[in-house]
Amino acid sequence: MSADLRSRYLGLELTSPVVASASPLNEHVDSVKAVVDAGAAAVVMPSLFEEEVVAEQLGLHDALAAGTDHVSEALDYFPDLPELLTVADRYVRTLEALKAAVDVPVLASLNAAHAGSWERYATRLVDAGADAIELNLYSVAADPMRSAADVEAEKLAAIATVRAAVRVPVAVKLSPFFSSFAHFAHEAVDAGADGLVLFNRFYQPDIELDTMEVVPRVDLSSSVELRLPLRWIAILRPLLPSVSLAATTGVHTGHDVAKALAVGADVAMVTSAILREGPGAVTRILAGLQHWLDEHDYDSVGQLRGSMSYAATDDPTAFERANYRRVLHSWSGPVT
User: Fold this and answer.
1) CATH hierarchy code of domain 7-311
2) Dihedral sign of CA atoms 141, 214, 277, 228 in order
3) Contact of 256 with 284, CB cutoff 8 Å
4) How many CB atoms lie within 10 A of CB 323?
5) Angle 288-291-297 from CA coordinates, rounded to 5°
6) Among 61, 66, 23, residue whose Cα is nearest residue 45
7) Which of 174, 308, 303 is nearest to 249 (CA)?
8) Beta strand 213-216 with 205-208: parallel, antiparallel or unpaired?
9) Using alpha carbons only, what angle is made at residue 301 by residues 296 and 305, rounded to the nearest 5 degrees?
10) Which of 123, 107, 134, 226 is nearest to 167 (CA)?
């Protein structure tokens, strides 16, 4: 008999531990349906960014107000418009369309920049049918006048605000760049996070030398990048036994999913593999996971989950600094 792939994340019952995480594909009904048909157990929409909402509103205001200070007739120039859909309106409509099109949980992702915005947008997303909210705490702390404590306090306040405002589960997508990550993870849970997504993958700007411009670069991940989430999920699993943990960044194969489960993840989130191969990547990953579980006589993903966490492994220091020296001494390449 084949191993049972069913899993549970944020209190949601899933057919497998493979989730299609936020990507441009997840804002189109046809591509989402294809990913779900391929086996994705849940879908995370790309983030609604407050900056996009504000920029659009300001742009519209400026366009409509152009000339009104100089030509009085301009006040009556524009006809009545039946409806103007904002970025937030379009996001809500997409969410509603996805919910109507697929029978798996759909998680809405939110990135806000100002106090008060988190609550307003999160409430709209839940009202539109989101099964859970993923808070994307993506920001670059570049202000030298703000301390680490200030930055962390702001993020914790955002978590608490959303948790108090909505009735659905709330996951928080974190970066690894905290001076004491385990402490902040605990603080995030205390503030109301039902789950943690490890890790947010920051896209770094590059320099175009021909034009001397700062340009965005998108480099898809590889399985090597899974090692950082593996380490921290292994450490956090025994510390936060009742909290949902999701591994993201570097999930490309069934073996990658098995590793994430072994250290204690509830789900493994996939983006780059789908962008490279299309929805068929999900089918391939699930087949690889199923094969590995059956080959190693596991009855379910639940039986594998946490078997290699910090508390369960024979050598927990392998997840900490002791592993650093061992890795350095393991190098056997040529010296030139």
Assistant:
1) 3.20.20.70
2) negative
3) no
4) 14
5) 140
6) 23
7) 174
8) antiparallel
9) 95
10) 123
Is the four-CA dihedral 183, 187, 193, 194 of positive or negative sign?
positive
Residue 18: how many other CB atoms lie within 10 Å: 29
Q: 191 near 159, Cβ under 8 Å?
A: yes
Give residue 327's pLDDT. Answer: 59
Query: Under DSSP, is residue 213 helix (H, G, I), strand (E, B) or coil?
Result: strand
Quote the tokens at residue 8.
Answer: 């549970």
Return the beta strands (E) in the chain as ranges: 7-9, 12-14, 18-20, 43-49, 106-111, 132-136, 170-174, 195-198, 205-208, 213-216, 244-248, 267-270
pLDDT along the chain (336 residues), means of 10: 96 98 94 98 92 49 49 56 76 97 97 80 96 89 89 93 96 93 97 96 84 88 95 96 97 98 98 96 98 98 92 71 60 65
Nearest to 103 by CA among 44, 46, 42: 42
Between the alpha carbon of residue 145 and those of residues 141, 149, 182, 330, the distances in Å are 10, 11, 25, 42
Please report the sign of the dihedral spanned by the C-alpha atoms of residue 312, residue 317, residue 323, residue 329. negative
The token pair at 164 is 């108090």
The ranges assigned to domains in the chain are 7-311
pLDDT of 52 reads 64
User: Letter for the amino acid at 212?
Assistant: M
Q: How many CB atoms lie within 10 A of CB 279?
A: 19
Provide the token pair at 322.
């002791």
Q: Is 73 exposed, middle or buried (0-12, 13-18, 19+ CB in 10 A)?
A: exposed
> What does the CA dihedral 135, 140, 144, 148 come to, rounded to 10 degrees?
40
**Nearest 5°: CA angle at 97, between 91 and 103?**
125
At 24, list the tokens.
């441009």
Task: Round to whole Å and give the CA distance between 182 and 232.
Answer: 8
| Mutual angle of helices 117-127 and 50-65, in 10-degree steps | 100
Q: Which residue type does 188 have?
A: A
